Amino acid sequence: MDVILVKKTQKGHHIHLTLSNVVPVAFISMLTIASVAYSGYNHYSDQARNRANSRTSSVQHRIASQRENAKQLALRVDALQTQANQLNKWGKRLVNQNQTAQSDFSLSWGRVIENQPNTTQRSRYTSRYSRNKSSRFSTREEIKRSIKTVSKNLLRKYRSRVQTLPGGWPLELGRVSSGFGWRGRRMHKGVDIAAPKGTPIVAVEGGIVLRSKYMRGYGRLVELKHSDLYTTRYGHNSKNLVKEGDIVNKGQVIALVGSTGRSTGPHVHFEVRQSGVAINPVMYLGAMDSFRLSENVNLTKYVKLSKR
Prior knowledge:
Largest sheet: 9 strands, antiparallel
Shape: rod-shaped
CATH topology of the largest domain: Glucose Permease (Domain IIA)
Number of strands: 16
Number of domains: 2
Order of helices and strands: HHHHEEEEEEEEEEEEEEEHHE
Distance between the termini: 178 Å
CATH superfamily of the largest domain: Glucose Permease (Domain IIA)
CATH class of the largest domain: Mainly Beta
Number of helices: 6
């Protein structure tokens, strides 16, 4: 009886010790696993947070860099705009100086008279009033002595065939095909000079391009302003080589001969306009050695056409 009791007691004690040891071990193992998992989670969370912070910082840096670049660009644009405005002012100043140098629009008639080679000496017995250069009498006498007479038939010798034309005309080679005057019921307001298509057309004097476009009747037209009083027109061009606002010099090629507009063949229609009214170009072509359009001299008053 005693032996059996001892064995049961030992077996029951063994089972009790085993359960009491397993529970803590399992608990500790679970804590260990949870701790490891939590640590891993925190580690990966920290890495993800660091990556996100790094990306945010990179984006912020890019934005800041772009803002700085935009500021620098804006400063450069402002500087360029300032330079452009300054250059524009200088350009206008140079243009005005060039205009003044090429065409003295304010040149008085008295200065023209002083350059006349045929002007005779005044009488030594003139009055004190007449000695004054600004007096009306002296100016009237000087003008009277300087009146230019031009042959009305000046163009006749250039009608027969294409030939070399006088210097200062709108073409170097050509043939006068039509003059100034009435054509039936229509007034022909210029001189037509025929030449092969593409022949260069030159400016008879320096000036500013007032028009360079297609106009009814004229076809492609270039109009030059030489002074407050005078403009010249060059019509029926195949091509205009200057644009509005350009400054051109005497003898500069401004267009090419054509047959645009109301035209029966390739030629240049050359006009001289005084105060907007077309005058006979012969008055200018025959007197261009004594008068310039840029001088604002009234050609119709001081240039006379003879019938010969």
